[in-house]
Amino acid sequence: TPGGPxxxxxxxxxxxxxxxxCSQLLVNSNFEADTGWTLNDDxxxxxxxxxxxxxxxxxxTTSGYSSIQQSVSxxxxxxxxxxxxxxxxxSTTDGDFSYLSVRTGATTTLWTQAGxxxxxxxxxxxDLAAYKGNTITLFAGTYNNGAGSxxxxxxxxxxxxxxx
Length: 164
Fold this sequence. Notes:
By secondary structure, this protein is mostly beta strands. It has one domain (35-163): Galactose-binding domain-like (Jelly Rolls, Sandwich). The chain is built from no helices and eleven strands. Strand 7 (97-103) and strand 8 (107-114) form a beta hairpin.
């Protein structure tokens, strides 16, 4: 299934705030339009929960992997490449998890999070400078193991900022 990791791993690392002259590369980073993102396996745009404005992307509405994805080319000349994403995790803790991954040929899992019992919005930040000069596909999703209730993850305000 697109972009899904094998098991929970990894922890996000802090990165510096981008400076002037930087560009945000993702289309529809706030999910307010029906463009930019490919919705896989019953992922959807929703007004049920949002970090900013009125909509977000929701994954995890079925068993197995469910994700949103977007491909973008990163300039080789960039001095920094920073991914930021806001998410509202699943409240269930029965083995389901949320994830972010990047594909350039092989898929690399950036982050996973098991259900937390809290629906509070949380921010993730990653340094993706290692991917400069490549076209990457970013995946944000949820894995439901089929046991217990279905876990949903809401994603909003996902940005990919490159600085010269």
